[in-house]
Amino acid sequence: MKCKTEVLLMNGSMSVGQCTGCKRVGVHFNNLLAGFSQAEFKRWAEWLLHIEFAPNSSLFHDGQFRIILDTGKANLQFTFTESEFNVFRDGIAEALLQMRVRELMAGE
After folding, report:
1. What is the CATH class of 5-106?
2. What is the pLDDT of residues 51-79, one digit of tens each?
């Protein structure tokens, strides 16, 4: 079955979509696409919204501080500079809000 995707967020190099049938969520940032079940995405997004950059970042070989975010998938992580992280976290917050609004409207 081919998924029909509803866009929860589209912002520059980031998008979040959800299949109307199976409810899987795809998080696309630059050239990385991570897939989650609806429940996994909600748990991951809630966790992400409580992460602070400074205490969780490390200095990388290019001289920039970056944060590494686990996706819950073996060997798949996101890495962000502080400005990228702030854009990403805000986008995930917006997508989660859109998902909740759609659930309320559908009576789920």
Report:
1. mainly beta
2. 999 999 999 999 999 999 998 888 888 99
